Amino acid sequence: MITSLVAAQRVVQKLAESVTMKSEIPAIVAWLVALPGISRLRIAQKPQELARFLKFATVGAIGMVVDLTVLNVLHKFFGLPLLAANSVSFTVAVISNFTWNRLWTFPESRQHPLMSQLGKFALVNVIGLGINNAVLWAVFHLIQGVIPDPWNYNLAKITAIGVVLFWNYFINRAWTYREIE
Hints:
By secondary structure, this protein is mainly alpha-helical. The protein has two domains: 1-45; 51-176, no CATH class. It is built from seven helices and no strands. It has helices at residues 2-18, 27-34, 36-39, 47-77, 82-105, 114-143, 151-176. Helix 4 (47-77) runs antiparallel to helix 7. It is globular, with a radius of gyration of 17 Å.
């Protein structure tokens, strides 16, 4: 595992140098690609795929801001129940993510029919929404009495986003964007 971590860190550093980045990429990226399930995919040996994953995660971070903002506005200010507000916020973030992934993470995907990709992306994300709601609900109920509102449901939401990130990337990469080298 340590050998994989060192190899991943070297690949990330080479990737950073190849795109003329001045700062070092955080060790968390090397750690993530060294995780057993992810390391089997050999992302660390494929700099282009690692770069794609980092772009996907960046788009996801933007989506997280959208998701959390919409969630808090709907739940806190408009009084929507947590899971209803979460479903709407997740959907808004998915639309943002699909747009940015098509334009930036997988620009080659624009050569393929939009509706076909959108349909696949939507189906993957409907399952992702189910996972997101389940994790949100479970974590929220575990920490509800310990962490005060609104921190409790926001922490639960961030946990859910982290779990769904990996589902969304690997399933979308294997199915929605499989034609892209």
